[in-house]
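Input structure tokens:
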């Protein structure tokens, strides 16, 4: 083998085996943070040995760089997009802890191998496999490591095409449709070479392994790993996991398989049952780059977190909770999801409305609001802080009569009503007065001559109430009697069934207007015609 990458590998292996050196070089740096990117050596924990003919798109990516007296070796996984292009992670082709790329000639790709241990120890490609050098490297223009990893994806162009055939155990893999992120609970498969043990100092054996993982929703993903969810896909396995540097390898779904993600990062000690992060190939911001764009559309990013606001001092049943979306870049469309913040993560409401009325069944439960921001670049999520547990409303509403205006036998009332917790109100009003009339004659009796007796009775009439503005109402009464004391009452009850402590009242007496005096006019004199 006379290619530059082969000569560099030969020099490097005179110092130490490539995979063993990579582990020693990177493990100490990775252990500094719980979700720090680990060594760039792919291996699967808790998986099963497999053959490359089951994963013919899987490749082994090796970087060997001579920097003065120092030789750096690092290896990753990758997948075949087509005969001349390989998909991998951006951090696989950069200097450790930076976004500075290695020269393309320092990178080589081995395809069609089920076991790379012989290759790394002897530099001889396994029988039937193909070793090809890289001619150019593209990394995502928005790729960053700090303050958070995002857009961690790279496309390698090979110096000569791979032979894609069953005989060579090589094939390209289609990508998930843009926008079709796997739903939570979807079974996914990850593959990679080497180490099956995440313990410090353990070494990979170079064989291809695979494992089954389960997709996790974007909000639990972001909550677990603390990075941007717009370009991220998360998955975990109860008895398996990716490990430091499973980096660049493919995460696939279904049969025939489609690639949905690129291995990005995971916990430094590779525990099973924990969340692993993958670059989401369904995110338009990522997908457009893979397909050739150097200016892909950017998904929205939060600059301030969402918050749940209450109208009272604490959340109570029937009192509206309002989710404020926080600030976002990219002018996204916002949707809101309210959940119970417990093990069930029960979804209470999801959609464009940011207001939730907690029912009595939620008493004792804390709630959270998840904001989903969508634009042409993708979908991001962020969540509010958790509310205190919902309690039962114990604060009664209040109401008052703020004005009475009467004319002739009709009165207009101005009313106010409010609730300390903003609970919905039902307002009613009534008018009471004495009615004086001749007593009715009982059946069979004759009317007495002379003055008829007078009877009195009380009348109470309900009045129609109309809202005028928030907390302000009006009512109208007509046909009221003159000369009698007229009493007005207003009552209010909230949605929780609480009423005001006392009933506000008002009263008035209507006076019959005095008749207007008649104007006396002199009769017109008839004009007499003069006789001629």
């Amino acid at each position: 083998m006379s290619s530059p990458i082969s000569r560099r590998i030969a020099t490097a292996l005179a110092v130490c085996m490539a995979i063993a050196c990579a582990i020693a070089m990177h493990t100490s740096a990775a252990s500094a943070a719980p979700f720090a990117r680990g060594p760039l050596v792919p291996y699967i924990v808790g998986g099963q040995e497999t053959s490359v003919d089951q994963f013919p798109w899987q490749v082994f990516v090796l970087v060997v760089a001579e920097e003065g007296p120092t030789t750096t070796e690092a290896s990753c996984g990758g997948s075949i997009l087509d005969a001349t292009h390989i998909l991998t992670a951006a951090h696989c082709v950069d200097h450790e802890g930076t976004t500075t790329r290695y020269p393309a000639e320092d990178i080589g790709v081995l395809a069609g191998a089920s076991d790379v241990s012989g290759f790394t120890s002897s530099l001889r490609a396994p029988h039937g496999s193909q070793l090809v050098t890289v001619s150019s490297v593209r990394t995502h223009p928005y790729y960053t490591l700090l303050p958070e990893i995002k857009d961690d994806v790279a496309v390698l162009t090979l110096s000569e095409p791979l032979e894609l055939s069953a005989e060579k155990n090589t094939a390209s893999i289609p990508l998930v449709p843009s926008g079709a992120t796997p739903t939570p609970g979807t079974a996914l498969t990850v593959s990679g070479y080497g180490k099956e043990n995440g313990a410090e100092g353990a070494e990979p054996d170079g064989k291809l392994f695979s494992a089954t993982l389960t997709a996790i929703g974007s909000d639990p993903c972001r909550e677990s790993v603390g990075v941007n969810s717009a370009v991220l896909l998360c998955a975990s396995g109860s008895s398996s996991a990716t490990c430091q540097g499973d980096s660049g390898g493919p995460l696939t779904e279904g049969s025939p398989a489609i690639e949905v993600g690129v291995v990005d990062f995971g916990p430094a000690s590779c525990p099973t049952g924990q969340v692993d992060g993958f670059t989401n190939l369904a995110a338009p911001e990522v997908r457009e780059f893979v397909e050739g764009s150097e200016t892909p559309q950017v998904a929205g990013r939060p600059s301030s977190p969402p918050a749940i606001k209450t109208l009272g001092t604490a959340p109570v049943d029937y009192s509206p909770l309002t989710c404020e979306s926080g600030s976002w870049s990219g002018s996204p469309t916002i949707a809101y999801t309210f959940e119970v913040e417990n093990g069930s993560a029960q979804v209470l409401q999801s959609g464009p409305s940011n207001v939730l009325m907690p029912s009595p069944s939620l008493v004792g439960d804390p709630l959270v609001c998840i904001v989903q921001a969508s634009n042409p670049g993708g979908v991001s999520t962020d969540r509010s802080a958790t509310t205190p547990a919902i309690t039962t409303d114990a604060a009664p509403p209040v109401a008052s009569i703020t004005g009475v205006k009467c004319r002739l036998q009709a009165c207009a009332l101005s009313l106010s009503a409010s609730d300390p917790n903003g609970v919905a109100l039902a307002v009613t009003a009534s008018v009471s007065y004495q009615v004086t009339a001749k007593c009715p004659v009982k059946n069979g009796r004759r009317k007495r001559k002379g003055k008829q007796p007078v009877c009195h009775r009380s009348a109470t009439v309900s009045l129609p109430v109309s809202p005028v503005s928030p907390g302000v109402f009006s009512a109208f009464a007509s046909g009221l009697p003159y000369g009698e004391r007229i009493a007005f009452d207003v009552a209010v009850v909230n949605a929780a069934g609480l009423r005001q402590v006392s009933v506000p009242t008002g009263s008035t007496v209507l006076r019959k207007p005095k008749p207007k005096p008649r104007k006396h006019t002199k009769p017109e004199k008839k004009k007499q015609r003069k006789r001629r």
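Residues 18-30 form the longest helix (13 residues). The chain has a mean pLDDT of 83.
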